[in-house]
Structure prediction request, 299 residues.
Amino acid sequence: MHLPKSVKLVEVGPRDGLQNEAAAIETATKIELVDRLSQTGLPLIEAGSFVSPKWVPQMADSSEVFERIKRQENVRYAALAPNLTGFKTAASAKADEIAVITTASETFARRNVNATIAETLERIAKICAEARAQSIPVRGYISCALWCPFEGKIEAKAVAEVAEILLRLGCYQISLGDTIGKGTPVEVEQLIDMVSVHIPIERIAVHFHDTYGQALANVLAALAKGVAVVDASVAGLGGCPYAPGAGGNLASEDVLYMLNGLGIETGVDLAALTDAGRFISRRLNRIPASKVNVALAGV
Prediction:
């Protein structure tokens, strides 16, 4: 099996992980989580989301989080922005880059943001144009890239077409999300094969949820196809508030342990990452969803 020599880990816990928490989380806790993650060697951390607090109240303090975190020179801090208003707020908060999101499922688009896929792409086009003018990189997400909770299996060709549009609009990278965690390695291989016909493999990232316990196997399948960027969430935090049945994200500790075992370089320190996972789990009064984190606690 031919695998990349190095992999870039994108930490999404402070945003995609915490946004789904029902109980309010203190701003100071979010700041400390980002600061702890900043000391692990992670190159990119999604620190918040500039969305309407009516829809995602957990992210209402993102501006304060960005203002108070202790930024490290070797770390980029990203923010999700669903529209031009969110982008302007994120830019004012000095986000290093912007994440935008669309989907390959029309039903999910309507249930998620009350818009068609075409309408979400129009919003992204405006964000990309403004970001280009301010020299702010934009990273794109495609949710429901394998399965949709409403439409079932999603055709890989539909995902590839959306990915091609995002690249053309100005996204430097496209992260393919298995939002409900139902995909299997064969399906991942088929998806990467199709998408990589439309956009270069180095522009593809993967974002897996572990609902069916397939996330690590799916990462390995993506790596074997040449993908070298993986999204993950410390302590396995998260899920999608708009996708019934969606489990938590792939735990950062678990994927890092696997990458270490494969001899793949990441620059991320497992002990420091594990500590960050334990910190946020204690604050949330739960055991980490990361199997590696739990195992190491017993060593």
User: Anything to note?
Assistant: The domain at 8-297 is CATH 3.20.20.70 (TIM Barrel).
